[in-house]
Amino acid sequence: MRALARECGFELAGVARAEPSEDTARYREWVEAGNAGEMRYLTDRRAAVREDPRNLLPSARSVICVGKLYQTPWPHSAQFRDEERAWISRYAWGDDYHDVMRRGLEQLAARIGLTEYKVCVDTAPLLERSYARLAGLGWIGRNTCLINQQGGSWFFLGELLVPIEIAPDAPPADRCGTCRRCIDACPTAAIVPNGAGYTLDSPLCISYFTIEQRGAVPEEMRAGIGGQVFGCDICQDVCPWNRRAPATEDPAFAPRHFAPPLAEMAALTESEFRAMFHRTPITRARYSGFLRNVAIAMGNRGLPQFRAPLEKLAASDDPLVAEHARWALRRCQPAT
Ligand code: B12
Ligand code: SF4
Ligand code: SF4
């Protein structure tokens, strides 16, 4: 099965039992503590569906978990210094991973000869990292990402729920040790203590602000966002397990627009935005949210050449964009 998964483009594969994960209680506590913020898909009736994979496929006996590497040999945000350019999180540089993963999983199902199965990639109410850990793909790091000892954490996860019994794999040991680099590097202190371990307080995470949050970004959080306009890679960039992470050979994840200039992003019309980021994860932020993020990044850079594009955004009909642009203008040096 692992060999077949590799032929279908997945570097990691393993099996967990299709039964409730012991992490369900952890999930409930996380939601009750308000860590899901406004992500209603985590707190509504789908929260209970997450408790058992058989809620998604009643006949499921096993969860085949796969991981696909998206690391590319391009700079990391921690090394990137061009103040005029926007940082887009590396997971969003190429084709939308939902499509790529789904295609590979459908292919895997066909190769195994399955007629009854369910494909899950990100959007299904399933605790993907929990099952990936149980299937031996890696441990859950303090940054809350699934980390593989040889491959690091630049992996997308996906699952095939199947009605056949397959001997499950065993979860690997936690190898974070005494390290706390991700906790110290997070600009918004979003990795917070949780009992003896750590968890993510989403309403403090840059990835949440720039992708999931629909309205205004709280003013006190804007400075920490730096030049990031979609997602955040910092807690993975600093992780020692990613130092020797291999790069994918799949051209799907090569950057379409590596670190595009902020001023050009601020000038995009809605149709240009759609065309530029068609079938990439970036469309999730929507045009309005993306311009809001670009305005925050320009304000954080404070360069005088951003005044003119920000003045245009400040005159936008969209009150969200206009307010963030006015905030950014107050932080920009005067034009010379
Ligand atoms: C909501 C969500 C977010 C939210 C909240 C993130 C979070 N940490 O919960 C936001 C928008 C912030 C986000 C950001 C990102 N996300 Co996201 N996200 C999801 C989503 C849809 C649900 C996650 C969830 O249920 N969160 C609730 C918490 C409680 O669950 P959890 O963190 O997974 O923790 C569970 C287990 O890991 C376990 N657990 C946690 N800690 C520990 C510790 C120990 C010791 C043990 C035993 C177990 C354990 O128990 C928890 C409860 O079951 C998943 C897809 C999915 N369906 O699972 C993708 C997913 C987690 N995201 C992913 C990615 C790539 C990202 C980003 C890297 C994107 C980016 N560059 O901006 C960042 C990473 C930020 C971070 N440090 O987590 C990948 C992660 C791949 C990986 N290698 O881990 C996933 C799996 C999508 C996918 N299919 O590939 N994401
Ligand atoms: S993704 Fe960025 S903001 Fe979120 S926890 Fe990691 S370093 Fe902090
Ligand atoms: S940076 Fe250190 S503590 Fe954080 S996930 Fe990586 S190994 Fe674990």
What does this structure look like?
With 336 residues, the protein is an alpha+beta fold. Helix content is 33%, strand content 12%. It has 14 helices and 10 strands. It has helices at residues 2-7, 24-32, 46-49, 97-112, 128-134, 181-185, 206-212, 219-222, 234-237, 262-266, 270-276, 286-301, 307-314, 319-331; strands spanning 12-17, 62-69, 87-88, 118-120, 139-140, 146-147, 155-162, 191-194, 197-200, 228-230. The strands form 4 sheets. A 4-stranded antiparallel beta sheet has the order 1-2-7-4, sandwiched between helices. Strands 3-10 form a two-stranded parallel sheet. A two-stranded antiparallel sheet has the order 5-6. A hairpin with a 2-residue loop joins strand 8 (191-194) and strand 9. Helix 12 (286-301) packs parallel to helix 14 and helix 13 runs antiparallel to helix 14. The radius of gyration is 21 Å and the shape is globular. The model has no long low-confidence stretch (mean pLDDT 97). Cobalamin is lined by residues 23, 26-27, 30, 39, 42, 89, 91, 121-122, 126-130, 140, 143-146, 153, 155-157, 174, 197, 200, 202, 205, 207-208, 211-212, 231-233, 235.
Question: Care to give the gist of this entry?
Answer:
Helices cover 33% and strands 12% of the residues. It contains 14 helices and ten strands.
Number of helices: 14
Strand order of the largest sheet: 1-2-7-4
Report low-confidence residues grouped into runs of 5 or more: none
Major β-sheet profile: 4 strands, antiparallel
Order of helices and strands: HEHHEEHEHEEEHEEHHEHHHHHH
Query: Can you tell me the overall shape?
Result: globular
Report the radius of gyration as a whole number of Å.
21 Å
Find the count of extended strands (DSSP E, 2+ residues). 10
- Range of helix content: 25-40%
Mean pLDDT: 97
Bound molecules: cobalamin, iron/sulfur cluster
Distance linking N and C termini:
63 Å
